[in-house]
Fold acireductone dioxygenase (Fe(2+)-requiring).
Amino acid sequence: LDADNYETDPCLKEIRRAENYSWMDIVTIHKDKLPNYEEKIKTFYEEHLHLDDEIRYILEGSGYFDVRDKDDKWIRISMEKGDMITLPAGIYHRFTLDENNYVKAMRLFVGEPVWTAYNRPADDFPARKQYMKFLAEEAC
């Protein structure tokens, strides 16, 4: 994706239309830009899940999403300018900045935004059970 021209990027526009991403905002994670920076960084790095997909598009900077594989081992995903990721509802994950300590990202949602993170363990939620069922089906 063309992060320098995200406001007019036809590819981003098509993704938003096709996936019904009707709501978006932009967040800057940097000590001078994010209120309660230290607290937020710790919260992002705490292993958690959401009941809805988490969609992030990196406009500037870089960082890492860590997710668990089917054997519960960590996989680190490096994200940089122009990258987009969709973390499915129910997947345990966390986010951290890299050595640059800066990222500007677009957050996308289907409908109204939901910010609630459920720290591990959160295995009883239907979203987690559905995700685990998906993993079991994919393994066959």
Remarks:
- Residues 10-138 form a domain with the Jelly Rolls fold (CATH 2.60.120.10).
- The mean pLDDT is 96.
- The chain has one domain: 10-138.
- The first helix runs from residue 10 to 19.
